[in-house]
Amino acid sequence: MRHFLIVAGSAAWCRKRAAQLLENRPGTVWIGDVAEQQQLKQVIPAGRAKQLLGQEFHSILFDAHCGFDADAFAAVSGTINNHGYLLLLTPPLHQWPDFEDPDYQRLCVWPVTADKTNGRFLQRLSSMFLHTPSAVEVLTQDESHESAPLPSPATCITTSTADQQQAIDAIVHVASGHRSRPLVITADRGRGKSAALGLAAAILLNKHEHDNYHIVVTAPAMSAVATLFQHAAPELPGFNSDAGKLFTRDRSLRFVAPDQLLKQHKIAAILFVDEAAAIPAPLLEALLRRYKRIVFSTTVHGYEGSGRGFATRFRDTLDRLTPQWRELQLSTPIRWGQNDSLERLTFDAFLMNAEPADENTFANFTPDQLEISRITQETLLQDEQTLRQIFGLLVLAHYRTRPFDLRYLLDGANVEVLVGRYRGEVAAVTVALREGGFDDDMMSLILSGERRPRGHLAPQTLALHCAQPQALQHNFLRIMRIAVHPAIRRKGVASALLKELGSSAEGIDTLCSSYGASSDLLAFWRKNSFQPVRIGLTREASSGCHSLLMLHPLTDNGRQLLHQAQGRFLKQLPLLLTDSLKKLECRIFLPLLQNAKHSHDIPSESRELLRRFAAAQLPFDAVFPELVELAIWAARSGNAARLNGRQQDLFFSRVLQREAIQSLATRLQLAGKREVQRSLQCAVQELMTLG
User: Fold this and answer.
1) Among 271, 337, 545, 596, which is most exposed with the fewest C-beta within 10 angstroms?
2) What's the CATH architecture for 359-583?
3) What pLDDT, in 10s, does the model give residues 19-48?
4) How many angstroms separate the CA atoms of 349 and 641, rounded?
5) CATH number attached to the domain at 3-140
């Protein structure tokens, strides 16, 4: 049994009392302000608590007087082992919602300041702690007696469970069975999945003692696989050890970051992907295509709450590429006992186990029965069922949903929530953020580089990256999340939400969305009349995609802004494709270029030169300006769609991105320069019949 103890009172009293309680536990990790506890060796700021994931501790103290970082608290709660203690220092619980939490700085969006931030999240949390006496012990400053120090840490002996052994056997089988049959292991924290990977790795390396045998493990960070290496190392006598590596001359277990793994193409007998839900989906798919023996492992109700979303979305990819994949779930905890009260409380407090409404509710759903309305944050606080269903949808829809997102949903000053219901149950939800509307003084500070107000992504991006300073004074509503119940997707529900959001938005010039660009999402937003105005020049770590900003104007001001920003974007994009965006996929940049309003006919003299190129009478370099002209015309007019996918990739990558001929031949599996040249000529011939 694990213990959760709240010490509630003034900051000074709480810290003094905690020090007394922890006299017998010198190895306690304190999470809080390092400056407040300089005499302690193991003090970690809440922002760095993630580095503790994968480790085990007998006791951790979390000082909420320094700010309650929901992500950090959820993370460290899973590192306490059986019979361990988690201490939380807070103001008196009935006063906590009114406490000016230092963490409010992350919630403040101009012009709202920390002292104006509502404490709904802390109100819900403190109420839950007060009404769960079976899971929480509370010591208050006005208590009439002094508690004795906590007992010394008990020795914890962990033993393998039956399902963990089953996982080890399944991992070993992936290495020796048929190729292209990946294994997906899912589990809540503390179930031993990382340990199973480490033990299985040791079995495989020992089994191949006389072979050249290498196992590669990847994860969002090397710290995430510390447990894996800790369990493998004792089983591998004679292996050398280095950072993220166990090795001999001809055998190894080594960590490689996901992006480096794709760049370097490491040879591996088998690949382990730990905490897969936190790795961008495009990277996972690339790894799945490259490695024929692969094991994915991920946390279901984890610190980022992302495992269920991963399972829902990645299952389609697995079905498509490796239909004989296998799934295995670990349910028996190793780090603590069954039905652990701290685990249950953490799940409930941060909705890490939140589920959407039962899919049977939507058996007879038709879009015309959807009831759409705005819902206030105060209503969300009072309606736990609706809050759970909304958050359950958000977790399924996005692989990076975190406990902080719950706090922002309840306390964010610029948040608007639109809910679609069917028979009273939540069918869909949109979370949007109000941005912009800066006064002249703040506008000047932003343009001079003196201020970068938190939030307000759209207006600052337009002003500073798109040369549209007037955007700072416009009012935006940025769609941060949109989620539809899996049972009713592809029925126009998301589009209905967006239509209602626009028609009911008061004082808003422009709806906007910023997201990791993929072909399906781009098609969705274009279908709903959103137009691109900026694409990020590098790929986001969170999605593996380039971020894309799209606008949908609601007023004359919004329409004028879109016209100016889009004109500049269409002028810039062809130039960026030769430089920063040389690696951008054709399926992404072609729809971005499409805009009939900016399409012009090809002059007759250019057509003649292109005709001669298609007839092999002129070389590529001689008609290069005309080829660029043709490519931009075809993209903007939409006529590029007349080429098949391979022709599009070849023609536009060569002409607009200047990809080398040999690179194209290799990537598209063409037989050298001549076939590339013939394919280009055929593509030009096809486009010329339309021009």
Assistant:
1) 596
2) 3-Layer(aba) Sandwich (3.40)
3) 999 988 888 999 998 665 555 568 889 988
4) 50
5) 3.40.50.11040
